[in-house]
């Protein structure tokens, strides 16, 4: 549904994107992660047409988004990182405006608005001015403007930043439902547990490019977890050791004649992956700067 190839973007002498490549299939949620400055928001701005790349290609569905921009971008809904709503009018009126820009009219428009308000638990506040809503409610209205009309591509840039647990739960449920219905979703976040809840595939951005891509299982397969052992003898301190084969490491302890009282294995997760990839990128960074120079 979305295919971005070798995107490059300069701001003065700073290269914000440096060969950024990402493909997202229908029904897939891609968790786009990386530190501030990694290129995530610039990528979203280019796909939405707010910024034009200096090089590279983008296809949305069957359309070349850089040539047939308006046609291609009718296929996407976007919730930017910064709230972009009209505070003096109601949530419903904000949605009516965005639905109209997406080409929805009449009964279909009203039905779509009613459905997304219900989906995001906003029906009770739909006719209040957005400026009078809580921060969490405004976050949900922002997401609703992206989802109204059920576009086949969703770009959600930090949609739960600063959100309360109720807002977070409603948004994640709505994102899962959209993917299950066939939408392709790009979801940027610094809150890694959300990506586990969404069963997202992962794309790690670093210095303007995607440096790792795959499922959590694929990307954490060779990472060490941690073996935690306490012993029957209270004089023996708790053992915590990195492990890629906890069974073999535990067998080695038993062979030494030591008697465990409890054993716990922590499997590698997204935090471990993130730290490993960041460390690897740091090791390569001087070489890349030299090459760029």
Compose a concise summary of this entry:
The chain has ten helices and 13 strands. The protein is α/β, with parallel strands linked by helices.
What is the CA-based Rg, rounded? Answer: 23 Å
In total, the number of domains comes to: 2
Share of residues in strands: 25-35%
Query: What is the count of DSSP helices, taking H or I runs of 4+ residues?
Result: 10
CATH uppermost class of the largest domain: Alpha Beta
For the secondary structure, the number of strands is 13
Write out the strand line-up for the largest beta sheet, numbering strands in chain order.
6-7-8-3-9-10
Can you tell me the CATH superfamily of the largest domain?
P-loop containing nucleotide triphosphate hydrolases
Provide the CATH architecture of the largest domain.
3-Layer(aba) Sandwich
Major β-sheet annotation: 6 strands, mixed
Quote the average pLDDT. 87
Please report the distance between the alpha carbons of the first and last residues. 35 Å
Helix percentage range: 25-40%
Reading the helices and strands in chain order gives: EEEHEEHEHHHEHEHEEHEEHEH
**Which term fits the overall shape?**
globular
- Runs with pLDDT <50, length 5+? 284-293
CATH topology of the largest domain: Rossmann fold
Structural class: alpha/beta
What does this structure look like?
There is one protein chain. The chain folds into two domains: 218 residues, P-loop containing nucleotide triphosphate hydrolases (Rossmann fold); 70 residues, no CATH class. By secondary structure, it is of the alpha/beta class. It has ten helices and 13 strands. Helix 3 crosses helix 4, helix 3 packs parallel to helix 5 and helix 5 runs parallel beside helix 6. The two termini are 35 Å apart. Strands 6-7-8-3-9-10 form a six-stranded mixed β-sheet, sandwiched between helices. Strands 2-1-4-5 form a four-stranded antiparallel β-sheet. It has a three-stranded antiparallel β-sheet with strand order 12-11-13, covered by helices on one side.
